[in-house]
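Good morning N.,

You mentioned wanting to compare the apo and holo forms, so I went ahead and generated the holo version with cytidine-5'-monophosphate. This is what I fed in:
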Amino acid sequence: MARRKKIYEGKAKTLYEGPEPGTIVQYFKDDATAFNAEKKDVIEGKGVLNNLLSEYFMLGLGQVGVPTHFLKRLNMREQLVRSCEIVPLEVIVRNYAAGTMSKRLGIAEGTQLPRPIVEYCYKDDSLGDPLVTEEHIAAFGWASQQDMDDILSLALRVNDFLSGIMYGVGIKLIDFKIEIGRIYDGDFQRLVVADEISPDSCRLWDIKTEQKLDKDVFRRDLGSLTDAYSEVARRLGLMPNNPASITKPTLIN
Ligand code: C5P
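and this is what came out, ligand included:
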């Protein structure tokens, strides 16, 4: 098989040139990192689960009219996406206080916020992805005012969609991060949801028990990460309830 051209190797994914111009293959690795890669591990099966979950969320977003870069899942670990230029911002939406917001503002984790709060971080690992304001974004030209209006609208639509889907399976969407891509059609550009949406980039708590079903399980050593992600996939109907039922050999007469 011809070797594919690697375009970029990230912490959790590798990107390869796709089969058609303007396409990219996203390969989901099992690598887990936290605290700007100070904590690292390989968690068998994480990439497969994130590929499946991200496909599910991106397809659902597409069905409700939110544009994404997703084209199709290719296999257990890979999906085909449209090539886009990534806006150098991490767009975070929070419904409940947690993580860095709780630390920064001294609000107990799990406190419901008066309304969803959108934050922007400048994507730069060497700086630890610092929180920035729209003033920085405009002054440094990372995105135009029109882009920012579109990004805010996309982020809130993703929040409504994901919150609803998760609520339906007994999970509270605490917060999440998305990335935004620019796709050029001739002289025009469109903004789309890019990268991935998975428990690596969301905080998901069981509504009744507040059990964490996201990457905090790894960050905070709370147990098995694959059990947590599998539980999310199972509730969304993406895993067989009884895996033995599909692996059991059948006798053919
Ligand atoms: O760490 P913090 O509380 O700011 O994270 C907010 C949300 O954004 C969490 O769901 C976290 O998983 C996600 N995030 C991410 N990638 C980053 C930073 C945060 O997916 N680099």
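Residues 90, 92, 98-101, 129, 175-177, 201-203, 215 surround cytidine-5'-monophosphate (CB under 6 Å).

Happy to go through it together on a call whenever suits you.

Best,
F.
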